[in-house]
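Review form for a predicted model. The reviewer records the input and the model, then writes brief findings.
Reviewer: anonymous (R2)
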Amino acid sequence: MQVNAVASEPESQREVVITRVFDAPARFLFEAYSKPEHIMRWFGPKGWPVTLCEMDFRVGGKFRFAMTGPSGRQNTPFGGEYLEIVPNKKIVYDNGFETKGAGRMVVTVTFDEKAGKTTLTIHTVFESIAMRNSHVSRGFEQGTNSGLDQLGELAGEMARREQA
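Model under review:
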């Protein structure tokens, strides 16, 4: 599925790619993406917990999340549809805020495991350059990386539980 991209805007100018290497097998990271109890622990920037988490993790299934900021006010929900799921390898979904006229983005998350370490790549393609720039200027990359810090902590806990 492609977002309704502005025809003249190349994908390379509408994308953000974030890569992180985790000292954990892909199955832990994939599981963290696939279950609400895990999403609520790591997704989003630290201090902005996911307080609404509805997900039907299957191709064609929908998800809906919202985060609550330090003020205690829940932000506008966002969500989309799971477009492709390859266990422990890849998740593709579309996403956007539940605001009239809000743009959409397609997110591809890949899990590349080698020798017990996993390179996680999040490739986000926004509907337009303007949408991309708006998200980036409001801390999209910092927020995503903060969430990945929390994902690393959760994956470490999962590994310790498995070894116990």
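Findings: The chain has a mean pLDDT of 94.
Further findings: Residues 13-163 form a domain with the Alpha-D-Glucose-1,6-Bisphosphate; Chain A, domain 4 fold (CATH 3.30.530.20).
Recommendation: see findings above.
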